[in-house]
Amino acid sequence: MANLQGRATPWGSLRGRFDLLMALVIAAITLTIIYLARDAEPPPSEEEGGVSGMGKAGRREGECNLFSGRWVYDNMSYPLYKGLECKFLSDDFACEKYGREDLGYQNWRWQPHDCDLPRFNATAMLERLRNKRIVFVGDSLNRGQWVSMVCLVESAIPSNSVNLLSSPGKSSVMVFKAKEYNASIEFYWAPLLVESNCDDPRKPDPDRTVRIQAIKKHARHWSDADILVFDTYLWWRWSNVKVLWGSFESPSGIYKEVKKLRAYEMALNTWSQWMEIHVNRSKTELFFVSMSPTHYRAEEWGGVAGKNCYQETQPITKEDYWGSGSDQAMMRVVETVIDDLRARGVTVKILNITQLSEYRKEAHPTIYRKQWVPLKEEQLANPMSYADCYHWCLPGVPDVWNELLYAHIFKNWVPKLEENV
Ligand SMILES: *[C@@H]1O[C@H](CO)[C@@H](O)[C@H](O)[C@H]1NC(C)=O
Ligand SMILES: *[C@@H]1O[C@H](CO)[C@@H](O)[C@H](O)[C@H]1NC(C)=O
Ligand SMILES: *[C@@H]1O[C@H](CO)[C@@H](O)[C@H](O)[C@H]1NC(C)=O
Ligand SMILES: *[C@@H]1O[C@H](CO)[C@@H](O)[C@H](O)[C@H]1NC(C)=O
Ligand SMILES: *[C@@H]1O[C@H](CO)[C@@H](O)[C@H](O)[C@H]1NC(C)=O
Q: Cellular component per GO (predicted)?
């Protein structure tokens, strides 16, 4: 699979982290040996594991696409934290706090077809982030993933040793600091990645105008991060985009309406050029989160036409379900830009969360979130009309995105045994 190319094999990288992940490695080696022995191949010794195991493991990794799998109801291990206890859970995603009663959406585990996800270990994550910065950059979907990460690690540290600088929605920058680790988990608001008139989170301009070649103003906020997690998608979806060459202030700026797909490509190229020139390849790990699906058309999953995700309580079970909210052409643009960037020496891992999130029509906040603008009477009379089917409740789907991120940061998923018996 393209999305796993160029990564260290689980076997090779586990070897590389032998000191840090001793226990896990031993478990993984044991599993790998059993696994290989079953294939009637000699178990690799520690010395040759990285070399002779490579082709084999490489093939196996190709088979193990973490993003291909199914949801399993698991109310023993999930949720991974209690939403009502996470102080940093912002009101946009706090479905339980805002009165949602069916909480089944919190209890689903993602099970890849060919391997198991490692369990999220908050202490290990904080150790990995010691003296480091991870920055999530993008729109409110990415902010949801940032909040999820903060809630996931928060339970592992005493509350008097954390800091949250600036409050959600008020500023472009949000910083969570775990003091005793000197670890910084940050979010930076740049919904279109490049500069735009939507960069002020308090008053994004509905008449969207994008400075398609300008990213410096944003990039200085994340230029020396150790791990970067980007997303941008939904803000490009609505219509054609007004593109500006020149600055917002300058009277000589040139404005032109550009088709959204083309504008998206231009913006991602600006982003990738910045990355090529500025990213320290030996220091920074890079991720791009694929588009987050929306659930506004119930007829697409066999529901009643005219309805949306409001009052849904179960995931979609139809394999490979794909709704009209997720634009394949835009995903291909991301793929192409990131492939080109890899050819130029910068590797960005795509967290391909689209398919797995497609299944989760029941996991959006709908009406159970803070309403920033008071609702009108006719809206209150018809809750479906203001249901949020864009974002995700927390605890919930973005926790799994972070488990996938975690798996890629530690590269420690293991072959699944049962399927080979
Ligand atoms: C992501 O997964 C979907 C379906 O599983 C696939 O169609 C798509 O090509 C993948 N995209 C990338 C960038 O890997
Ligand atoms: C988990 O779900 C099962 C089946 O729905 C139920 O019987 C059980 O009580 C639940 N356990 C918890 C801890 O919620
Ligand atoms: C979590 O990680 C820490 C630090 O690496 C380790 O000491 C601990 O044993 C791990 N916990 C579990 C349950 O694996
Ligand atoms: C704390 O972390 C920052 C990165 O977030 C790093 O630049 C700084 O050197 C660290 N401080 C110490 C004392 O290691
Ligand atoms: C890139 O990062 C490495 C590892 O942190 C560091 O040693 C090196 O000096 C950095 N290079 C530049 C050009 O900043």
A: Golgi apparatus; membrane
Residues 56 and 83 in one domain: no
Phi, psi of 245 (to 5 degrees): -105, 125
Ligand 1: which atom is nearest the Cα of residue 322? 4
Question: What is the average per-residue pLDDT within 91-96?
Answer: 96
Asked which of 24-38, 61-75, 245-259 is least confident by mean pLDDT, the reply is 24-38
- For ligand 5, atom 4, name the residue with the nearest CA: 283
Same domain, 261 and 389: yes
Mean pLDDT value of segment 180-200: 95
Inside any domain, residue 418:
no
User: Do 57 and 78 share a domain, yes or no?
Assistant: no
**Of residues 376 and 202, which shows the higher confidence score?**
376
Residue 33 is part of which domain span? 1-63
pTM: 0.85
pLDDT of residue 403: 97
Is ligand 3 within 6 A of the CB of residue 20?
no
Task: Please check whether residues 161 and 279 belong to one and the same domain.
Answer: yes
Q: Per-residue pLDDT for 248 more than 60? A: yes
Please tell me whether residues 304 and 197 are part of one structural domain. Answer: yes
Q: Characterise 138 by phi-psi region: left (phi > 0), alpha (psi -120 to 50), beta (else).
A: left
The pLDDT of residue 57: 33
Indicate whether 103 and 220 sit together in one domain.
yes
The per-residue pLDDT for range 274-294, each reduced to its tens digit, is 999 999 999 999 999 999 999
Residue nearest to atom 11 of ligand 1 (CA): 352
User: Of the given ranges (25-39, 154-168, 201-215, 335-349), which has the lowest mean pLDDT?
Assistant: 25-39
Question: In this predicted structure, what is the pLDDT of residue 156?
Answer: 86
Q: Which of 355, 401, 404 should be mutated for ligand 1, with most atoms under 8 A from CB?
A: 355
